[in-house]
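Sync notes, pocket subgroup
Present: LS, DG
LS reminded everyone that the earlier model was apo-only. Rerun requested with zinc ion included. Inputs:
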Amino acid sequence: MNPLDKLVTYFENFPGIGARQARRFAFHILTMTPEETKEFSALVSGLQDSVAECASCRRFFAQNDGRSDICELCASPARDHGKLLVVERDTDIRSIERSGVYDGLYFVLGGTVPLLDSRENKKLRGGGLKRIIEARLGSGLNEVILGFSVNPDGENTGRFIESIIREIDGADKLKVSHLGRGLSTGSELEYADPETLKNALQNRY
Ligand SMILES: [Zn+2]
């Protein structure tokens, strides 16, 4: 396979990108200046070294000092450490932070549990979530918010998390809440507008 076709194949594997878009991306790179190409390839090759996965919430964050294993959200004393919002993926956190209505902590589960194949839950960070909740129960955690998309898989994932929470000693002190119905059925959290997210969080039940 020639380099151009190889690059197209990489782009085709990107989420939501089809064969035609992948070709357009590759041909766009051919129109870039040598400086742009150099910067672009340096960014790609250095990305995994400059970004780390937070040991607490599991989101990716830019490591400025190169040492911290906790992201700035988890480390911030200004955040409400009594609330933990569980989301499917990193990009959901970006959307919620943009809405500016949530001041608690997060946990990135890493996916959802499909309604038709619950064995898929093994690929998620259920064990990691259980350990974080156990650890944080002693330091004031009092609410876990299930922040999943409004669709059958999202609801199934919510039940999976509730089953994990029931296994935790002292979990009866925890309030487990769901995002309010501001989110329309079938909608993905990542694409919800800030106003909708704000309503969903304020009207959680
Ligand atoms: Zn974090």
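DG: The mean pLDDT is 89.
LS: The domain at 76-202 is CATH 3.40.1360.10 (Dna Topoisomerase Vi A Subunit; Chain: A, domain 2).
Action: DG to write up.
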